Amino acid sequence: MPSYDDDLPTQDEEILLKKLVENGEAEQRIRAVSEIKNLVIGSKRCKAAFFRAGTAETLYNLLKEFSSLNHTELLVEIIDCISSFVKTNNKTILGCIQHLFALLTLGIESADLCESCLRCLRSFFLPKLSTKIFSKVDYSNPFLTPIPFVLLCDQDTHKPPSLITQPQKISSATQLSSIEQYSPFDIVFENPQLLDILIRLLSLSKSAQLSIVEILCCLCVNNERQQQLVDKNIIPAIMHILVENIHDKQQNNHTNRITQASLTDEYIVGVCLKLFCSLCYENPCVAQQLHGTIHTETNQTLCEIISSLLNKIHRPVVISYYAAKFFVNLCKTKVLSADHPSVSLESLTTLVHLSTKSTINKCVYLYIECLDTLIYLLNGNSALHHTAMYTEQLLSKLFIYIFTPTKILDEHADESSVVQLRSSSLTLLAVLSSHHEDIKKRIAEQENLISTAIDCCRSPHLSLQLAALCLFHGLSRSVHQLRTTFNDTICDILLDAIKSSDLSVVKISSCVISNIVLEFSTCRTRLLSGGILEILLNFLTHTDHDLCINSIWALRNLSYLSVLQIKQDIINGLTIDRIYSLLDQCTDEQFLLCLLSLLRNLFDEKDTDALLPLFNATKLLTTLQQLLEKNHPEGIHREITTLIDHLNSSNNPSQQRVSSESMNSTCRTSLFPEYVCDEMDQLDCS
Amino acid sequence: MHAHFAQPHQAAAAAAVAAAAMAVSNTSSTSSTSEAHALTPVHHTATKTEWMEAIEQQRLERSTLNRLIINYLVTEGFKEAAEKFAEEAGISLNNIDLTSLDERLRIREAIETGRIQDAISLINTKAPELLDQNRQLAFHLKQKKGLLFQQQHLIELIRSNLIDEALTYAQIHLAEFAEEEIKMRQELEKTMALLVFDKPLESPYGYLMQISHRQQVANEINSALLIYQNDESESDLSMLVRMATYMQEKLDNKQLRYPKLVDIAGGKLEDS
């Protein structure tokens, strides 16, 4: 906690604050507000101290008092001051939002006042400057630095909880009195006219465009909000601004006039691209709509316009990044396939290039953003992995980020940036190693990588622990790696991790364990002697669904080609009664499928005679028959049928048992099943 | 490095460009009068005479030079000079925002004359979000304000309560920055160290109290204001000078001998 957190205003500051509430002439009021503004802006201590003294509310009251009068200069001072407060704390003054919109609705002539209102509104939506991640960031270039938009697609961990849930419907009667219960987002969406005001003001000035589009970016917090924005017809409006500013920038580049080079056009292009990314993130419907959008004046599609930005050589980094990210989002929503040129040839190569570009070392966040976007794209798109690995340009850079990040970063880079860069790099390696055997081999054989990953598992930083465990998960999806890479040290780490107090660590380690308990793994014995069976059995009733599935999955893998003793231990741990109870009552299809696979593994040929009597063969067959009559998906029916066949064969030795090769591959105990819990196609990299 | 402006026709930059071209095309020239380094193979590019001849052949348009000069004057905030030069050169400044230039000039003047509070007020009117967004700038301005406060009372240092006032100011207004970042903490430590010297101006950290340091802060603010209003923060001329220096470094790294530009301001070449 900062040392100034409990500070109150000094004596001199108190005198100044008193002047705010004194009835005086307008000039005196302006001076008082201006002096307070000059103290507050740039000082977190002053903001905290004055906030504690109720200054923000006082300013809000002044705003209300003077809004109806023609005091433009005073209003600008008040709003700029409030804007500064809001950058760290917007509690108790959320009502300001509606008031600012009311001012904008009045059709005020002063562009300065309008722009001041819009800047202030923007401040309400940005994550607060006190947030740890952004407190040390250099904001000298507000567009190149991580403007902390609360975006669904930025996977921010510091999202306010209210953004994630669906908005509650409230009656207008309760709206005003309970305004403080709601987030800025709720307030804006409750009154549809507020969005109309923002859209109308897009024509005011370029500065207004920047503020408004940034606000709209912040509003894309879930699929419903994205659709609401699209329903307001913002796509054509933003597309028009995008094309206009691309054109203006080109004109400026070719002109022979003496003019100061303006980056405004570039910033606006960049923020428009960011908005399109935000609108279509994880939203197939909006993504499809954007894909089909055509600019009426030029007859180009939006994709063509954005693709042309990726083809330019001397383009600003941020434009390249968001243009690439747009196609990534279209790919992840299945609007574009992974082998579409815009994805595989343009976006992927751009992101790899940006991730490895040496001249953006002052913008470490951009490296991290690029890596995270690559993780997002490549996770589940194994067809792109070899393209990403081409020439090892990316791979060599990832190793530098992991082993010697200080070679890339400024010597004063704070630790959190270093940690995040390493975590993202490790996670990207995890994704790359999740599918192709040759890539797994290349990565696993990199000198010092496994030992570094082991160190990261022991790091005090959770993100590093998770990233390292992800890497082990990716590598565990290989018979060869299970026999070579995984050693006792890793086993011990996993045995510790599975007992962690952090659920995310437990879950990812359970993913790894579910693979390394297989019969041909070198880790199996050590895990069993470390008590993994009991741990997995306990997790079967865990409240977290994914952990339950991982556990039954791991038990299934453990039972595959296992010796009789282990099978008996599993049965004893589960208990016969519980198995019957689960067969009868379980409605979770994933769990049921795993349980049936487990039973099939238990009753393989050599052990059926020993184990079947424990179950009472007749009762088991009856139970399975009843299960077959229920309305389960085909996969479950297939599994039941196979199991019944096995059991009937054991009862009637003359009946030929269905050979394992003829079974549908989904029935096989496999390293690569298709279930979400193991996420064989997609690693859990959240 | 990619230039986003016109070709570098200025003499200094032209020399460096010609150096690069000649070094690449004539690495085995025997016409150099310089002696080779005993251990390192050296490639001679051209004599000084050849060099100057090549430079003379470069086309130089006056309008390009004029644009460079106007760009420099406007970027650095020399409004009066820009207006006068434009008038002499017959150039229109219609596309330049002279109001904004004026504002930056006033801010620069306020900082350089020690009127830090005025500077803060002007900055917060022109760019209300700048000092919130750029903590380092805010720190430097407050640091400067604190230093000037000390400086004004240095002759009365024997009064202990003045040291207390300086300490109180630092505790109230500067400590929050030191908590956030090592760099700012180190700078604050240097500033506070001035208190222990009898003659702070002669101490190792005396530079903090020099006028040149105020100019440095003023330059920093000027660049930040340009970025804030979405303009280029550096003049094309300073970019050209840096480009020339960079190219010469690259040539030196390749052990190439060429008539090096040793005085960029004077355009003086010397055999290296």
Automatic annotation (TrEMBL), chain A:
It comes from the Eukaryota. GO terms for biological process: proteasome-mediated ubiquitin-dependent protein catabolic process. One of its GO terms (cellular component) is GID complex. It is found in: Cytoplasm; Nucleus. SUPFAM superfamilies: ARM repeat. The keyword Nucleus applies. Keywords: Cytoplasm, Nucleus, Repeat. Gene3D superfamilies: Leucine-rich Repeat Variant. This is Armadillo repeat-containing protein 8. It comes from Rotaria socialis.
Automatic annotation (TrEMBL), chain B:
Transmembrane segments: none annotated. It comes from the Eukaryota. Residues 100-165 form the CTLH domain. PROSITE patterns: CTLH (PS50897), LISH (PS50896). This is CTLH domain-containing protein. It comes from Rotaria socialis. The lineage of its organism: Eukaryota, Metazoa, Spiralia, Gnathifera, Rotifera.
